[in-house]
Amino acid sequence: MARKVGVIGMGNVGSTVAHYIVAMGFADDLVLIDKNEAKVKADALDFEDAMANLPFHTNITVNDYGALKDADVIVSALGNIKLQDNPNADRFAELPFTRQAVKEVAQKIKDSGFSGKIVAITNPVDVITSLYQKITGLPKNHVLGTGTLLDSARMKRAVADRLHLDPRSVDGYNLGEHGNSQFTAWSTVRVLGKPLTEIADKRGLDLDQLDKEARMGGWTVFQGKKYTNYGVATAAVKLVNAILSNSLSELPVSNYREEYGVYLSYPAVVGRDGVVEQAQLDLTDEELQKLQTSADFIKEKYQESLEAKD
């Protein structure tokens, strides 16, 4: 079975996603779509120029929504990153632009007859994932967002840095909105075979500081180069591969949680059928409160997007 992936939006993030897929041979067929015809054609040619020196071959199609009909996964990476250059580090600054673009794109995806899975990176990701699901009419478990998969990685990097470990040796989650209301659920974080809360005192770890570092990681990168791409593209491709390979990986991704009535990040088992199982964490009362705050915020912004006349 040929693996077919679509990437919509070939900006800094979309082109990094596509390059990672081509360089690692993760797909047999890749459909690249962008309103900037010259840019997407240039990227496609650039990838083809790379293939003589790669161990894999990828067939590339450009700007053809019809080619998405039999795709396994579509990655939504469209956006307008310049709008995020604001003093509040607010991902919602992109919403008036992205909700309009996504309404258009989601309709074209639906019209193509696509029946695969959607992985949204487009910010604000939880609201955008909800819009994709509503407009395409795909099952809720087939539409996911990268969510706090990236924020959790940033938290692991911060903790691992302090403890002189590989970040893959840190387990645990950041939850809620991929944005300012997300938080590290310290009750879920384990390291060296113990809950981190147990060794934080002994090792002199300031958990509030680490939580802030995880939250501000993206902003620090953004300040340096005016966009972020490697961290989030890697998170997206990990999610794409979990679907393509039916790996049944437990990942903190944006998925629809019935009890909150909204898409937010919470660990879910991901495989070929999208979200195949949802975890149930034993969170502290304080963490549950933070999660509810996140859920309420996402819901409010989603309602605004539905009512917007753009």
From TrEMBL:
<keyword id="KW-0560">Oxidoreductase</keyword>
<dbReference type="Pfam" id="PF02866">
    <property type="entry name" value="Ldh_1_C"/>
</dbReference>
<feature type="domain" description="Lactate/malate dehydrogenase N-terminal">
    <location>
        <begin position="4"/>
        <end position="145"/>
    </location>
</feature>
<dbReference type="InterPro" id="IPR001557">
    <property type="entry name" value="L-lactate/malate_DH"/>
</dbReference>
<dbReference type="InterPro" id="IPR018177">
    <property type="entry name" value="L-lactate_DH_AS"/>
</dbReference>
<dbReference type="Pfam" id="PF00056">
    <property type="entry name" value="Ldh_1_N"/>
</dbReference>
<dbReference type="InterPro" id="IPR015955">
    <property type="entry name" value="Lactate_DH/Glyco_Ohase_4_C"/>
</dbReference>
<dbReference type="InterPro" id="IPR001236">
    <property type="entry name" value="Lactate/malate_DH_N"/>
</dbReference>
<feature type="domain" description="Lactate/malate dehydrogenase C-terminal">
    <location>
        <begin position="148"/>
        <end position="306"/>
    </location>
</feature>
<dbReference type="InterPro" id="IPR036291">
    <property type="entry name" value="NAD(P)-bd_dom_sf"/>
</dbReference>
<comment type="similarity">
    <text>Belongs to the LDH/MDH superfamily. LDH family.</text>
</comment>
<dbReference type="InterPro" id="IPR022383">
    <property type="entry name" value="Lactate/malate_DH_C"/>
</dbReference>
<protein>
    <submittedName>
        <fullName>L-lactate dehydrogenase</fullName>
    </submittedName>
</protein>
